[in-house]
Structure formats: structure tokens, C-alpha cells
Write a structure and sequence with these properties.
Keywords: Cell inner membrane, Cell membrane, Membrane, Transmembrane, Transmembrane helix, Transport. The chain is an all-alpha fold and 377 residues long. It contains 17 helices and no strands.
Length: 377
């Protein structure tokens, strides 16, 4: 039996696996250092709310600036890696009102779903499952199959109307010898983040550091293929012959590494911090020396760069699995399956093509859903 098909399969997953590692590096660093979940939908909802929250603002800036930088460097990056990072036919050449309305509908559904379910592919699937969050597991179990089902049902209609590019096929293309330099360039935001972390006190330049993590996440999305709706929709073609398995890199490298980092570097600290914080709240009538000991424990197990605010993990305050979570996840799955666009890649694509009618339409739909639900909830 020939091993060539297996080797070809692994070869095609090289860049998506690197992308998954970049995603894990950014999301795990934000969690370990700042006690925050890297949720792209939360960042987009915060931007549209008009309020200023430093972490979300820095993530939004990093994702968008990362898209701009990738676009500027794309001639070198795409030639070196023999990959395309954006579907320009979708983001630039949307001349049909049908396509504009369809993208707007997708944005509306993704926006409404992520607001109701309090998360998207990054917050629930990449970060939530890694932490063992039951809410995130249920959300992913709901939205992923629904996205596949939606795409498979609507694919004939979309093909006839020529609204979107066909799902990207599974192609074998060898990278150029200068590919390592291109990967180093894409990983440069994280290298700079590490240099700042090693050379400055924990509380210094937090906004810049989180912005660099956002840019690292943008590089990971591009390498994994998630900035190309055709690749995402190609993954939804499972198990057809045209299936594109590139997004497996997110699951294997991104989710896998996050699970390991949370298990060995974060979970114990969160547990000890939670227990000490609870005991501290019950020591009002006890000796002052006991309270001082607990304060020291709380500080020692808090996130490295945010000892005062502590761990801000959704499961510490909300473990409810209800109709809002399930219904929101279903809406998100439908919207994601319609166009293959979710909040993180939308940030990156908008940074790369800020005058794209297609991306403005998607973002407008997201914005409208955000405002409508603000009034209703």
C-alpha cells in the first residue's frame, strides 16, 4: 500500500499546523499572562458598543493591523509559501446586490448568535473547550454541525447564483526554500511580545503587548486558511472528494496545545486562586494575619500581569446551559455556514481590504444585530 497519499495529506497540513501553533501561542499567552479569554466576537461587540475596554480594544487593533501587515507583505509571503491568504474575488469584487445582502445576512446571524451564546469559534472552540468549559463544548457541538449542514444545503443555490467563490480544493503545493523566512516574518509580533515580556516589568506596556498577541492571532488565522471563506467552506464539504482539511490544523495544533498549556500551567493556579479568594471573602471576622496570608496566596496565583483583577474566565461566573446558549450557537452556525466568515477573520480581512464592499456589508449586519439585541435584552 502506497504511503504517498498520507505524505501528501501531512504536507498540505504544514501551514495550517503552524497557524494553529500561532493561534495557541496568542490565546494561551493572553490567558496565562492576563487571565483573559481571546474572544474575537467579544472584541467586535465591544468595538460596536462604543465603550472602551483596553484588552478588547488592543485585540481589535492587533487583529486589524495584522491583516494590514499581511496584505502589505503578501507578495513575498504568498510567493514563499505558495498560498493565498485572502479570497479577493469575495472581498473586492462583490458587484451583485444578492451577494451584498447575503453577506449582510451572514454578519447579522453571526453577530446575533455570538452575542446570545457569548462566544464564537475562538472563545468557545479554541479557548473554551481547552479549559473544559461545558458551555463551550455544548456551543461547539451545536454550531459546528449546523454550519456544515447549512453550507451543504445552500451550496447548490450559491453555485447557481455565483454569489461566492467555490470551496477551495485540497491542493498539494511545495513551499519555496525561503518559506522559513516568511514564517519568521508572520511570527515577528509574537517574538516582539516575548522580548517585551522578558525585558520589562509585567505591568508595563500591556496595551502594546496585547496588540501584538492580536497580530499573532491574525497570522495564525491566515496560515490556517480561516481568512479565506473558500477554505472554510471547503472544510464544510466533508466528506465529499472536494473536502479541504486545512482547518484540522486549528483543532490539532491550536486546540491541542491550548489543552496542554491550560492543564499544566493554568488550571492549578486558577483553582488555588479561586479557593483563596473565597476564603478571603469569609475572613472579615478572623485575625488580620490570616487575611494577609490569603492575600499573598491570591496574589501569587493571579495572572502574572493582572494580579488585582484576577482570572476573568466565563465559567467562574456562568455555568448555565440554557436556550439562549443553544439558540445563539445555532444562529452562529447558520451565519458561519452561509459565508464562511466569523469575527476573527472578519477583523483580519477588513484590515487587509478596508474598502471592501463585501466586508462592510458583513460588518454592517453584525452591527445591526448588536444594536437590535441591545434593545431587546
Amino acid at each position: 500500500m502506497s504511503t504517498q497519499p498520507v505524505l501528501d495529506f501531512l504536507h498540505q497540513l504544514e501551514l495550517p499546523l503552524f497557524g494553529g501553533l500561532f493561534l495557541a501561542a496568542a490565546s494561551s499567552s493572553l490567558l496565562h499572562q492576563y487571565g483573559r479569554v481571546l474572544g474575537c466576537s467579544g472584541a467586535l461587540h465591544t468595538v460596536f458598543s462604543g465603550s472602551y475596554e483596553p484588552t478588547q480594544a488592543a485585540l481589535a487593533l492587533g487583529l486589524t493591523a495584522g491583516g494590514t501587515a499581511i496584505r502589505i507583505a503578501s507578495p513575498f509571503l504568498e510567493r514563499s509559501l505558495t498560498r493565498t491568504f485572502f479570497d479577493t474575488s469575495l472581498v473586492l469584487n462583490v458587484n451583485s446586490w444578492n451577494a451584498v445582502l447575503f453577506l449582510g445576512l451572514s454578519g447579522w446571524l453571526v453577530g446575533a448568535g455570538s452575542k446570545l451564546a457569548s462566544g464564537c469559534t475562538s472563545g468557545h472552540m479554541l479557548c473554551g473547550i481547552a479549559r473544559g468549559s461545558k458551555r463551550s463544548l455544548i456551543a461547539t457541538i451545536v454550531f459546528f454541525p449546523i454550519a456544515i449542514f447549512t453550507h451543504r444545503c445552500l451550496k447548490p443555490v450559491l453555485s447557481v447564483l455565483h454569489l461566492f467563490p467555490d470551496p477551495s480544493p485540497f491542493l498539494i503545493r511545495a513551499m519555496k526554500p525561503i518559506a522559513p523566512l516568511a514564517l519568521l516574518l508572520l511570527g515577528s509580533p509574537y517574538i516582539l511580545y516575548l522580548l517585551l515580556a522578558l525585558s520589562l516589568p509585567a505591568e508595563r506596556l500591556s496595551f502594546l503587548r496585547i496588540t501584538l498577541l492580536g497580530a499573532t492571532f491574525a497570522s495564525g488565522l491566515a496560515l490556517a486558511g480561516m481568512t479565506r471563506p473558500s477554505v472554510v467552506l471547503g472544510f464544510f464539504d466533508f466528506p465529499l472528494p472536494s473536502w479541504n482539511p486545512s482547518l484540522l490544523g486549528v483543532a490539532v495544533a491550536g486546540l491541542g496545545v491550548n489543552i496542554l498549556i491550560y492543564a499544566f500551567a493554568v488550571r492549578g493556579r486558577v483553582r488555588n486562586w479561586t479557593e483563596a479568594t473565597k476564603k478571603l471573602s469569609d475572613t472579615a471576622a478572623e485575625a488580620e494575619s490570616a487575611a494577609e496570608v490569603l492575600v499573598e496566596v491570591v496574589t501569587r496565583h493571579a495572572p502574572l500581569c493582572a494580579p488585582r483583577s484576577g482570572w476573568r474566565l466565563p465559567e467562574l461566573s456562568n455555568t448555565t446551559i440554557d436556550c439562549r446558549l443553544i439558540g445563539g450557537s445555532a444562529l452562529f452556525g447558520i451565519g458561519w455556514g452561509l459565508a464562511g466568515v466569523c469575527p476573527g477573520p472578519a477583523f483580519v480581512a477588513f484590515g487587509a481590504y478596508p474598502f471592501s464592499i463585501g466586508m462592510w456589508s458583513w460588518l454592517l449586519g453584525f452591527f445591526v444585530s448588536d444594536k437590535v439585541l441591545d434593545r431587546l435584552l
